[in-house]
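Action item from last meeting closed. Structure (403 res):
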């Protein structure tokens, strides 16, 4: 059944214009692929994972119809999106396809390891991460996957052992309860000697008579008055006030606090530092437009900073977590004409500098002549404003890793 008035199944979707297009010549297909890829990156930066998956799938479908044009990165990107959608098996299939196309594609090995980790295939996840380490020994993300896989695997072993022990305990308890209900076997008492105390009732199994004549558990131990006196003098079991002056101020190895000398685990939020650094290092970056009319393009602000940034200390080892997105708002002028737009950065991490970047132009206030300049000197990843901003961003992430 047709999905809309024109038979487009995506008619109700905001990307219906590109999803419904089916060009036949190669040039038109390539132009549509670029448009779809840009929209997919934008959807991902906005956390719209269903749209991102749909758009990446469209781009892959178009590329598969052109011999020799398959991009490994598209499968890696869709694998990442599907991980976010918890489509783990599909994510794993995309990661494997990416590696099949380009065995040296580092991110695909990481996606593969992450998917296997979510599937509780710990040994395979470790193996996938180790393959990634061979390609990028400095990438800490692989070491983190291996560490988590080892911990999860050990936890699974411990949980199974605990379940087995609990099951055995229940069996013993059921057995004890069953035997406790059995009628006690009466035994004849020995002939009572004149003046002797009554013998202990043997039917009271598991109990004994204390010195004061009361019944108590067989395992109860009476404490003598002398022992009680020694315990009282030693002060065992009594709360003691801690002298603050006796607490050392030395920091734990690796950056732990005074109260955490073992450095077992601590975490410090770094989003404020990241926000301040991005604005101080990126705002003001400018590029002089090399055209007859002159002009320049300048980063005016950093907006929509989202994600996580924290530094953890675990047993003396520091880990720098960084996973953010943000928009670098720019303005430009060519002669008397002006315009503005934004560079949307995603997948900004502390592990690598392969950021995802999407260039947006505000068409409502940017005339065609200025748009052409922006397309040439902002959208272009190799020349103009974008590489200047990217280089400054790399310095921010490098500094972050020294904190």
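Sequence:
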């Amino acid at each position: 059944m047709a999905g809309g008035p024109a038979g487009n199944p995506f008619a109700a979707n905001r990307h219906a214009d590109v999803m419904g297009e089916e060009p036949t010549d190669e040039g038109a297909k390539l132009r549509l692929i670029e448009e779809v890829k840009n929209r997919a990156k934008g959807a991902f930066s906005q956390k719209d994972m269903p749209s991102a998956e749909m758009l990446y799938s469209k781009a892959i479908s178009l590329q598969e119809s052109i011999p020799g044009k398959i991009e490994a990165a598209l499968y890696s990107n869709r694998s990442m999106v599907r991980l976010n959608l918890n489509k783990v098996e599909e994510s794993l299939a995309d990661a494997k396809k990416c590696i099949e196309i380009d065995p040296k594609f580092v991110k695909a090995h990481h996606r593969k390891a992450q998917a296997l980790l979510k599937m509780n295939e710990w040994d395979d996840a470790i193996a996938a991460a180790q393959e990634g380490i061979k390609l990028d020994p400095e990438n800490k993300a692989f070491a983190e996957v291996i560490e988590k896989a080892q911990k999860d695997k050990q936890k699974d072993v411990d949980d199974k052992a605990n379940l087995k022990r609990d099951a055995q305990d229940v069996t013993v308890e059921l057995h004890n309860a069953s035997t406790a209900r059995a009628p006690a076997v009466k035994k004849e008492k020995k002939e009572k000697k004149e003046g002797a105390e009554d013998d202990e009732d043997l039917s009271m199994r598991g109990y004994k008579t204390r010195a004061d004549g009361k019944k108590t558990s067989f395992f109860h131990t009476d404490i003598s008055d002398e022992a009680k006196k020694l315990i009282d003098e030693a002060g065992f079991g009594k709360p003691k006030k801690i002298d603050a002056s006796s607490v050392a101020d030395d920091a734990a190895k690796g950056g732990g606090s005074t109260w955490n000398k073992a450095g077992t685990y601590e975490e410090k939020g770094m989003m404020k530092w990241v926000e301040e650094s991005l604005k101080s290092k990126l705002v003001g970056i400018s590029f002089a437009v090399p055209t007859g009319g002159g002009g320049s393009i300048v980063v005016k602000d950093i907006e929509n900073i989202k994600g996580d940034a924290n530094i953890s200390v675990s047993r003396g080892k520091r880990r720098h977590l960084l996973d953010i997105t943000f928009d670098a708002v720019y303005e430009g002028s060519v002669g008397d004409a002006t315009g503005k737009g934004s560079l949307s950065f995603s997948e900004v991490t502390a592990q690598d500098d392969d950021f995802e970047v999407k260039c947006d132009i505000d068409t409502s206030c940017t005339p065609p002549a200025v748009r052409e300049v922006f397309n040439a000197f902002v959208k272009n990843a190799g020349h103009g404003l974008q590489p200047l901003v990217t280089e400054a961003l790399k310095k921010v992430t490098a500094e972050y890793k020294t904190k």
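Note appended to the action item: Residues 266-400 form a domain with the Bactericidal permeability-increasing protein; domain 1 fold (CATH 3.15.10.20).
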